[in-house]
Specification:
homodimer, 337 residues, mainly alpha, 16 helices
């Protein structure tokens, strides 16, 4: 990837000229704030997180444009779910991985938005009556409860489809097109039959069956893990990371992807509907096998802790630019919603 | 697009070395037959069509691989709809447009497969109970009738998602990556909220409303036309076509996309369920506005005929390489199923 050198971080004195070419989505007047581009050597994690959420939500805003006319209902439904809050963890990881290899975050902003659009579509379709049949998501009625099943299905389809155009169009020209095509290919694999959709199928077929700890890990590596890996490795690739860096980022992403799921299972047992913004205890009610049901609560916590350490170790060769990723691993394990 | 010169057709004596780099999907042992690469100067259209269908179905075969294991049900459902026959008109158009600008068809084979996967997903989701609620497609039970709603939804999601990886991975390295990224971006727009999904939404919202001829044309330009345009312009772009050629191909595709829809409306009135392999008369039963219901049968036929001529005129600057596209315009209008 010699041709992606131009995508590397420029010295800070070039910031002004750099800003002129920063990420700008169609119809967006939002530009990056220079203060968001400061090196991540020593920083307040909470402030960092808030600033990243704000940046990502600014970039997501024009990803589902208000069309007007008879198709307006579709963009309303897309916006309802895409702009309804959430941790924005996957896109933050994409930007963090880009930073970790010394890349500029706008190189990964198209990918970050695409990943969040795909995550959002998967929740809309997952909540449908023919799937998990859920009424509540992020403390609000699910998409089909508001817009009906037909529009919810189409809104999911549109978010998924549009996501590939967002990353294809909004990755700066300075980023290698070879790296961009590779990133698109991996995003497709991570989200499709070999990844997330395949994992959702296994989850569906597994309901009520006996499942081993290996089965459970395989399920989650596809259902949740693959999109984490696509976010982190894609962010690193678009930031100009080399093969060794991408391999390390892959190991990091697999560890925190699984840790995230273990914590999700624990919160389903321990959290309240108010705290989580969605129905809890549902895994248990459906006879779904989870980490707490297989290992117990205590051993599940220890497992998540071990994965957090593993994620940190994967980053041992990185310098201070990887500090956000290190803190994000803690965040994924320590969160309570 | 100077950098796509290497993607141009090589002299026929280079065929052997060319074949070594031809389109080969993962897990596929199928290669192109040299007889399929002969210039399209004088040819039997029926034989051409059969040969193209065979080539495309060989290439589609590994696009939904049999996974085995607990996720096998998903690949079964994907294969059920993807490999259930059909005219394969959109992928044939993609290859024909690539040929028309002097490109080699394997340059557009990844796109051709992606287009057919997206077309297939749209039919699976369209047939769902919450959408058109259809029981029959291509003379067989619809996907959800065989696999249930949940798996049918996921099979559609997977075909759509995987399609972008298929075109990203299976477009030969000799094709400009800039052209490939542009093609992916246009495929996303054609299939997503600005194109097909947007058109489906309008169709849904229009049911029972009063619709003008302009409304109907706008609806179909998005619901059906956009994917025709993506197939034809994408094929031309990956074949190394210049801006003037792409503009002409766009005009051709818009004309035959609309002609195809007018004929579809006519066949819904005039065709039998046996002949069409799907329920007919359904537009009328639902009170949907169609070309025959707005213009009458005779004027609809004349309109299709005018569009056929318009498509032919759009290709006036092309040489014998565009002969397949010219014949395909006739085929789209003269078909009876």
């Amino acid at each position: 990837m010699e041709d992606s050198i131009s995508a590397k971080r420029q010295p800070m004195q070039n910031l002004k000229s750099a800003r002129a070419g920063t990420f700008r989505l169609e119809n967006s007047s939002n530009e990056l704030d220079p203060s968001d581009l400061q090196p991540a050597s020593s920083f307040e994690f909470d402030a960092y997180l808030k600033s990243r959420v704000r940046l990502i939500e600014q970039a997501l805003e024009p990803c589902a444009i208000q069309t007007g006319g008879p198709g307006e209902r579709l963009s309303e439904a897309m916006r309802y779910s895409l702009l309804s809050g959430g941790k924005r963890l996957r896109p933050i990881l994409a930007l963090g991985a880009c930073e970790a290899v010394g890349g500029r975050i706008e190189n990964a902003m198209g990918l970050a938005c695409a990943i969040e659009m795909i995550h959002t579509y998967s929740m809309i379709h997952d909540d449908l009556p023919c799937m998990d049949n859920d009424d509540l998501r992020r403390g609000k009625p699910t998409n089909h409860k508001v817009y009906g099943e037909a529009i919810a299905t189409l809104a999911g389809d549109a978010l998924l489809t549009d996501a590939f155009g967002i990353v294809a169009r909004n990755t700066p020209a300075g980023v290698s097109r070879i790296a961009l095509v590779e990133t698109i290919a991996e995003l497709s694999s991570a989200a499709g039959s070999a990844g997330m959709v395949g994992g959702q199928t296994i989850d569906l077929m597994d309901e009520g069956r006996s499942v081993s700890i290996e089965d459970l890990e395989y399920l989650h590596s596809r259902k949740t893990g693959a999109l984490f890996v696509a976010a982190v490795m894609g962010g690193g690739r678009l930031g100009g990371g080399n093969a060794a860096q991408l391999a390390a980022l892959g190991a990091y992403a697999r560890a925190i992807g699984l840790a995230f799921q273990v914590i999700d299972d624990l919160l389903d047992v321990e959290g309240s509907t108010e705290q989580m913004g969605k129905r809890t205890q549902k895994d248990h009610q459906r006879g779904k096998v989870t980490y707490p049901s297989l290992l117990g609560v205590e051993a599940s916590r220890e497992f998540a802790e071990a994965l957090r350490l593993k994620a940190g170790e994967a980053l041992s060769e990185f310098d201070y630019h990887a500090e956000p990723l290190r803190r994000l691993a803690n965040f994924a394990v320590e969160r309570n919603s």
